[in-house]
Amino acid sequence: MGREGIVCRSFGLFFALLLLLDVLSVSSAGPLVMNTWGSVFGRATAKAWSILQSGGSALDAVEKGCSECETAQCDGSVGFGGSPDELGETTLDAMIMNGNTIEVGAVANLRRIKNAIGVARAVMEHTKHTFLVGESASLFAQNMGFPAEDLTTSKSLSIHSTWLNQNCQPNFRKNVVPDASKFCGPYRRAKQLYEGKWNIPPKVLNVNSHDTIGMIVIDEDGNIAAGTSTNGATHKIPGRVGDSPIAGAGAYADSTYGGAAATGDGDVMMRFLPSYQAVEYMRMGTDPTTACQKVISRIQQHIPVFFGAVICANATGSYGAACCKAPGFTRFHYMVYNSLLQQPLEKAVDCI
């Protein structure tokens, strides 16, 4: 082989190595922990990874990882003392899914119980049901041994007081009297409906207060689990349930193909079952990043601008994410931990 041939071959091997390293940066044959949002949620990532390293299952890792955020009140959007509703009360939503059996446990509008993801797992493992809500879910939790505790804090009371002093702005009411854009309730139905294009109230879109923790875990045996936990939308109408605890919306797992989790405006995203759709795309052979992008694009066909993001991981350990570009939200941060890393890694993706 001539000198030029050797040089060309060397360059070829060099670029092949670079390509391999790029692939490895988003793929691992070993365990994987992936969750929504950046370093402020990193404690959850690290906790889930530690559970895997100590021999725990993917389900164990999802439960304990999300529970870590519940205890730490990650960014105020997970756990007690955050996102008070119109009455000033904090309630919790959570779900967990076993990708081997396709079993799901979920709770919504949970009161007085701090460990919502733990109660969700109890629903899955100790009932023949999938979803419990409201006061009955809280009583079930207490019967299962979860302690009753106050979810209100001085911070949540302050958030609610400030909101009341601002004439209950922003809120989630429409087609009511008095005018919800100017006054607090009580409200009653307006005689005429005024429907228009979906608009994002600027004060509601606050990416600094983030949203749900959604987590995907693959253990070393290839078992996949997914879960979510959140205290919902700030100033929500009491009784509101978002996408987080709904299987296929907040999260979805199938150990044969992969897992996905969503975060953002649950009242929009739950209409499209984005997590289920992302796993379906991966089942058809789509790579995780493209699967996430296709889910976002599909929602954009109906609602061009919304606050939302999706994370995806397939059964081989490849992963990706996508988000919708909205005012004040142009990049989405998420956390990853796998056998190629020494610590949780924060990654970011530009919104489309």
Overview of this structure, please?
- Substrate binds at residues 240-243, 263-266.
- The active site is at 212 (nucleophile).
- Pfam families: Asparaginase_2.
- Its EC number is 3.5.1.26.
- GO terms for molecular function: N4-(beta-N-acetylglucosaminyl)-L-asparaginase activity; peptidase activity.
- With 352 residues, this protein is an alpha+beta fold.
- The chain has one domain: Glutamine Phosphoribosylpyrophosphate, subunit 1, domain 1 (4-Layer Sandwich), CATH 3.60.20.
- The protein contains nine helices and 14 strands.
- It has helices spanning 3-24, 42-53, 58-72, 116-126, 134-143, 154-165, 266-269, 274-283, 288-300, and strands spanning 32-36, 92-98, 103-110, 131-133, 176-177, 188-189, 213-218, 224-230, 251-254, 258-264, 308-314, 319-323, 331-338, 345-350.
- The strands form three sheets. The protein has an eight-stranded mixed β-sheet with strand order 4-3-2-8-7-1-13-14. The protein has a four-stranded antiparallel β-sheet with strand order 9-10-11-12, with helices on one face.
- Strand 11 and strand 12 (319-323) form a beta hairpin.
- Helix 2 packs antiparallel against helix 3, helix 3 (58-72) packs antiparallel against helix 4 and helix 8 packs across helix 9 (288-300).
- The longest helix has 22 residues, at 3-24.
- The N and C termini lie far apart (48 Å).
- The model is unreliable at 10-25 and 197-204 (pLDDT under 50).
